[in-house]
Design a protein that fits this description.
The complex is a heterodimer. Chain A is α+β, with helices and mostly antiparallel strands. Chain A has helices at about 10-35, 75-90, 90-95, 100-110, 110-120, 235-275, 290-315, 325-350, 360-365, 375-390; strands at about 125, 140-145, 150-160, 165-175, 185-190, 195-200, 210-220, 225. In chain A, about 45% of the residues lie in helices and about 15% in strands. A four-stranded mixed beta sheet of chain A has the order 1-4-5-8, covered by helices on one side. By secondary structure, chain B is of the alpha+beta class. The longest helix of chain B is centred in the C-terminal third of the chain and has 33 residues, at about 230-265. In chain B, a hairpin with a 2-residue loop joins strand 8 (about 265) and strand 9 (about 270). The chains are: A alpha+beta, B alpha+beta. Chains A and B meet through helix 7, helix 8 and helix 10 of A and helix 8, strand 9, helix 9 and helix 10 of B. Bound molecules: flavin-adenine dinucleotide (2 copies). One flavin-adenine dinucleotide (FAD) binds next to strand 1, strand 3 and helix 10 of chain A. Chain A: It comes from Desulfatibacillum alkenivorans DSM 16219.
């Protein structure tokens, strides 16, 4: 039955996570924006926290009793949690030990034996290359089997957690003649000969996050370090399967945007209220000040972003295929979040340009959320291809 | 829990209205618009499905089901998917019935609801909007003054749906600075109803200007008695209705362009193969979803008996802005053909403007 109110336990989770964000992240947000790349030691308290754990095995899964109240699943909890933490600071959220994108991939596809070996490692994810960004299927890094080892060669850029991670899930092609079908992912541990962290990037925002470049030069890793099967199938189903992991992470990035935009709007609201500008959700927006009208419109956009994110997350929990909705949520939240944080700075005037306040930082931080894990344009492509039933050759 | 799935009942109701619209309205909306009227039989058919009365207790003539803003939101989206003018005409009585059922005194319910909740559709409506520049549903110029136990109403209202045929209507007016609703009967002294207004859109819907000149109504005409009404809730329910109708119109525009863009070829291939077209369509899709979700969010709060002032306000604001944008894209994607009145996107473009300009055309 339709009900768009969050249940109490999710509301409480939100409050709890916001409290955590306010107590632990906000106070150090500026510090690590300035001390770019420095590991935030304050986050050590989160070490060992099960951020990414494996869902319970099927056999142990309890079927909800008939008549028992249905509950929202883990994707909804995640949407609420990620938003609240990013309300605190998105760069720091990306620095939480053990919560790398590589961890998500490992949790999703690793064998029990691999889980044993790598489950507790902080794992980054390396797909992007200098010549291959949005078109992830065109990566040039190769992996060749030589006896009991894979030999990897290539360059990976923009790897989040490059410095701090223990291992990297690297995408490489085992059979370039097979195109995308040859793309597999491999776990490469730090310290492996031939695997070097080349440099860290200086960025517009999320400066607390260490984004870096890796070189792989005749880098040898054990044969067992491949995630999933080594077999190259004729179809691109395998590649599509890897991309599917992003159906769950796109709403997560949308949640990040909801968090940053929410922080930004809340700050504006506070300043407006301090100045005696009331927000009563009452008057015709054409009879209020320009500032109030902008505010209302932004808050409406934030609701839209959030509800589209909840929809994609709810579908994932209900095991409804959510490829389109996941992209919709990221397309909307990525763009609208960027616009909100920009506008808030404008409305704050001098307070929006000074580094004394965090508004300018949120404007820098939010921009990445319309870029990584598929740019806004790529999300529109995914949505449009699906609803218009067009192939990637018809709609390029 | 947070849930977007429809219950059996919700699905059944939605499907029956969807079928009705497909059978009766979808192919006729343009002709209705040109003719400037809606066949009475089409209105009666929707009425028989329980529009506006299902949430009224049986003793007052209703179906005795739960008074459900969510169900109304679903119905309004389906109706407006066919045609917004039709949606408003069919549900105009909800503007009268819903506030009374929700906030009237027992005596008012007994006295007013049974006549409005009959098997045959009769027009009951509300006059909320005002025609002056800067008009605002919360700062009404129409006034009510208490005098010798009755109320004297003065003011001018516009866009009152179907008012010329209404047996009774609710009129919003400020009483000592508080917004209230009063029942005004057909033919009341001091009540003048204009000819059909000529509007940008909704050609087939009759709307009227309602003038009240020292119009005297009895003490029990004030809905809610001495307490008055929860005016915020009245507005919230009407705003959810506006947003839901916006979702219906946007979905209609989207469905038209989805088909058109893959069929229409220029420069040797379907225009849908161009990102500038395809991306507009993607945007139409998620913004339509967003409008609907915001309407449902406000409706969920109303359904739980909570205040939805903020949610409904934002939902209507968003719907007003986005429906215009989406229906604009609808015309644009059809190019010159979209500018021709035979194409439904043209009507949607005009009708969409009503969401931001007008208040209280229906109640969820
Ligand atoms: C801070 C940061 C962290 C990152 N973290 C990671 C990480 O951990 N792991 C990882 O693998 N990658 C990571 N990335 C890389 C990120 O995913 C890519 O930057 C992103 O996918 C875009 O690729 P690109 O930068 O090469 O841009 P390009 O693909 O070159 O795109 C440039 C522009 O063209 C547009 N464009 C491209 N193709 C099309 C098309 N078909 N139609 C229309 N427009 C198109 C894009 O939308 C964009 O606007 C990170 C990037 C940054 C900046
Ligand atoms: C009131 C009116 C008066 C007119 N007067 C005249 C007149 O006097 N003489 C005359 O000859 N014509 C006239 N026209 C026709 C007018 O010039 C065309 O309607 C216009 O050029 C668009 O063509 P179309 O309607 O076939 O749309 P289409 O070409 O089918 O375009 C449909 C949509 O696809 C888009 N599109 C098309 N190709 C591409 C592409 N390659 N990339 C991206 N998007 C694309 C368009 O922008 C549009 O949004 C008139 C039209 C109207 C409505």
């Amino acid at each position: 039955m339709i009900n768009l109110e969050l249940p109490d336990y999710l509301d409480n989770l939100k409050t709890q996570m916001k409290g955590f964000a306010e107590g632990l992240l906000r106070p150090i947000a500026r510090k690590y924006d300035e001390a770019e790349h420095t590991y935030p030691v304050e986050l050590d308290v989160l070490k060992g926290m099960p951020v990414m754990s494996r869902p319970k095995k099927k056999a142990g899964e309890e079927k909800p009793k008939k008549g028992a109240e249905r509950k929202n699943g883990s994707n909804m909890s995640q949407a609420v949690t990620v938003e609240s933490i990013c309300w605190g600071d998105v760069g720091l959220m990306l620095s939480i030990p053990g919560a790398g994108l590589g961890n998500a991939a490992i949790v999703a596809v690793a064998t029990d034996e691999q889980m044993e070996r790598f489950g507790s490692k902080w794992a980054a994810m390396a797909i992007t290359e200098p010549g291959s960004g949005s078109d992830a299927g065109s990566i040039q890094t190769t992996a060749v089997l030589d006896g009991d080892e894979w030999v990897l060669n290539g360059e990976k850029i923009f790897v989040t957690c490059a410095d701090r991670c223990d291992a990297v899930v690297v995408w490489a092609n085992v059979d370039p003649s097979a195109g995308k079908a040859g793309i597999k992912s491999f776990i490469v541990e730090k310290g492996t000969p031939g695997f070097t962290l080349e440099k860290l990037e200086h960025k517009l925002g999320i400066r607390a996050s260490d984004t870096g470049t890796f070189f792989l030069k005749d880098c040898r890793i054990p044969k067992d370090n491949i995630l999933g099967s080594a077999e190259v199938k004729k179809s691109t189903e395998g590649f599509k399967g890897v991309m599917k992991t992003f159906d769950n992470t796109r709403p997560m990035v949308a949640s990040m945007s909801n968090g940053v935009a929410g922080a930004s709007l809340e700050f504006l609201k506070q300043k407006m209220e301090e100045a005696g500008i009331a927000l009563d959700y009452n008057e015709n927006t054409n009879n209020v000040s320009a500032m109030q009208k902008e505010y209302y419109m932004m808050e409406a956009n934030l609701e839209a972003m959030r509800l589209l994110t909840y929809k994609a997350s709810w579908m994932a929990d209900e095991k409804i295929f959510n490829n389109v909705e996941a992209s919709m949520s990221k397309a909307k939240a990525g763009r609208a979040g960027t616009l909100i944080t920009q506008k808030v700075c404008e409305l704050l005037g001098s307070m929006g340009f000074t580094r004394e306040h965090l508004a300018e930082k949120w404007m820098r931080d939010s921009k990445i959320l319309d870029i990584f894990e598929g740019t806004g344009q790529i999300q529109h492509l995914i949505v449009a291809r699906n609803i218009l039933k067009l192939s990637r050759n018809e709609l390029k | 829990m947070f849930d977007l799935s429809l219950s059996k009942e919700q699905k059944m109701v939605k499907d029956s209205f969807s079928k009705l619209v497909k059978d009766l309205i979808a192919d006729n909306a343009h002709e209705m618009d040109e003719a400037g009227e809606i066949p009475v039989s089409a209105v009666q058919k929707a009425w028989e499905l329980g529009c506006s009365v299902s949430g009224v207790p049986e003793e007052f003539g209703g179906y005795g089901m739960e008074d459900s803003p969510i169900l109304s939101a679903l119905v309004l989206e389906e109706l407006a998917y066919g045609d917004m003018a039709y949606a408003v005409a069919v549900t105009a009585p909800s503007l009268f019935i819903t506030p009374i059922n929700d906030m009237g005194t027992e005596d008012q319910k007994k006295a007013l609801l049974p006549n409005a909740c009959t098997d045959d559709y009769h027009v009951y409506t509300m006059a909320m909007c005002e025609p002056h520049f800067g008009a605002d549903a919360v700062s009404l110029k129409t006034t009510a003054e208490k005098k010798n136990g009755s109320y004297i109403l003065n003011g001018v209202k516009c866009f009152a749906p179907c008012a010329s045929q209404a047996e009774k209507m609710l009129v919003s007016a400020s009483l000592d600075g508080e917004n209230n609703l009063f029942v005004v009967e057909k033919g009341a002294a001091g009540l003048t109803i204009s000819e059909k207004e000529k509007n940008l859109g909704l050609y087939s819907l009759e709307t009227n200007t309602v003038t009240l000149e020292n119009c005297e109504v009895p003490a029990d005409a004030r809905i809610g008695g001495d307490k008055g009404v929860d005016y915020d809730r009245v507005l919230a329910r009407s705003r959810v209705a506006m947003a839901s109708m916006a979702a219906g119109m946007c979905r209609c525009s989207l469905d038209i362009v989805k088909q058109y863009a893959v069929e229409r070829e220029q420069f040797g291939e379907p225009i849908a193969h161009r990102q500038s077209i395809a991306f507009m369509i993607a945007e139409m899709a998620y913004e339509t979803d967003a409008i609907r979700l915001m309407a449902w969010q406000a409706a969920s709060r109303l359904e739980a008996g909570k205040s939805a002032k903020r949610e409904a306000y934002l939902a209507k604001l968003y719907a007003g802005e986005m429906a215009m944008k989406i229906c604009d894209y609808g015309v644009q994607i059809l190019g010159g053909h979209g500018y021709i009145r035979e194409m439904n996107v043209e009507r949607l473009y005009r009708n969409a403007r009503s969401i931001a300009c007008v208040e209280a055309l229906s109640m969820a």
